[in-house]
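@here heads up, posting the sequence + SMILES for the pyridoxal-5'-phosphate run so it's all in one place. Ping me if the SMILES looks off, I pulled it from an old spreadsheet.
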Amino acid sequence: MPVNLESFISLQHDLGAQNIVLVAVSKFKSLEDIMTLYDLGQRDFGENFVQELLIKKELLPKDIRWHYIGHLQTNKVKYIVPFIHLIHGVDSLKLLSEINKQALKAGLVVNCLLQVHIAEEETKFGFNEEELLSLNKEDYSNVQISGLMGMASFSDDANKVMNEFKTLKSLYEKQKTQYKFIYLSMGMSGDYKIAIQQGSNMVRIGSIIFGERNK
Ligand SMILES: *Cc1c(COP(=O)(O)O)cnc(C)c1O
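bot reply: prediction finished. Complex structure tokens:
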């Protein structure tokens, strides 16, 4: 399926006008498709799989800002730390510690978002509010915690999705000053409009731009 240029250009325009970062989610998508967007000025791309990301990163322009948006295994952290622009899905203290450790080794500070569990489904990874409030950021000197990320339930109930995003936004506001947060990453193809209404400033969009994924 080719890139949906019309949808992309209109998203790029609308989100740009509102200062919302568009992360184009390019998992399973070809280098060619990524380059099509690159040539239209897109620089933020999101990937879910380390192996795939490493290959693409080698072959594509160096000024692409790579976002890691999936669940990250601790043993893979070291491969992405040297170049990653932002890790969205930091969902446990164990992972946070490993990122800090590898960043320290590399002499870098790595930008991360803490993933908060907002959906009803048990399968979604992330911190809950209590864990977030008790986290001591001083313990992670080589990690810059620059915001929060969350995924709402996969549901047709817009009200439910709205309330989940609302919960995340209010947590973000509570912690914003302490952490110097700048990014609230919420919203995907199916729910980004609701997410933006609730205060998202970074959306992760795949299928609207690239069409449905066939793995
Ligand atoms: C795949 C994925 C997206 C993009 O999903 P679409 O519905 O295709 O927009 C966003 N966020 C995460 C964490 C993903 O894994």
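MO: The chain has a mean pLDDT of 95.
MO: One more: The pocket of pyridoxal-5'-phosphate is lined by residues 25, 27, 48, 69-70, 188-190, 204-207 (CB under 6 Å).
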